[in-house]
Amino acid sequence: MLTQEINIKKDISLNVAQSTGLGYAQIKKIALHMNNNLGLRELKEFNLIITEMGGEIIRNSDEFNNPNVNYLEFYKNGTFKVVFPEELSVQLERFLLDQILGYFVLHAKRGASPCYLHKMGDDLVELEGFWFASSLLIDDELIIKRIYEGKSLKELSNEFDVPEFAIKGKCKILETLYLK
């Protein structure tokens, strides 16, 4: 894959994305509402919906690893850009693009609240994006059923077409919810 020649710098006019303060159940409800309206769970080409929404996907590993570059920026006019490494697995790209859809809906409020995400980490904004993506792509009841059937991590990852870390994270969420 060819590397795009770009020079992206932090847009200092944007605010850092803030947590919505919503819980897992509320974010799941939003994600499932979007799925019911758009059929996102079955969608394999999330990059198409991202570009249709006004997003630009830039594939450049050097820029992605550059500390002076925001990996995700949402602008006032509703457009946004995301910087990805050049090589991602299909499952990882699908999950991350779905997570970005969550950020667009939850944090940028569909362009009404310009903001950026500078790093991937364990903060609340990242967690809310994970909840959104995992709610869309991994059905709670079905994964519980498959776990009781003895499916392995790899089998679950393949069935739901998401990376193994997404399955592990979803299981951790479900364990927290149901094994209190």
What does this protein look like?
- With 180 residues, the chain is of the alpha/beta class.
- The chain has helices at residues 24-38, 46-52, 61-64, 90-106, 124-137, 140-148, 153-160, 164-178, and strands spanning 15-16, 55-59, 72-74, 80-84, 115-117.
- It has 8 helices and 5 strands.
- Strands 1-5-3-4-2 form a 5-stranded mixed sheet.
- Helix 7 (153-160) packs across helix 8.
Shape: globular
Overall strand count: 5
* CA-CA gap between termini: 47 Å
Determine the strand fraction and express it as a percent band.
Answer: 5-15%
The major pleated sheet works out as: 5 strands, mixed
Number of helices: 8
Defining key terms:
10% strand; five-stranded mixed sheet; 180 residues; alpha/beta
In short:
Helices cover 49% and strands 10% of the residues. It has 180 residues and is of the alpha/beta class.
Annotate the secondary structure layout:
Blueprint: E1 15-16, H1 24-38, H2 46-52, E2 55-59, H3 61-64, E3 72-74, E4 80-84, H4 90-106, E5 115-117, H5 124-137, H6 140-148, H7 153-160, H8 164-178
Helix pairs in contact: 1-5, 4-5, 5-8, 7-8
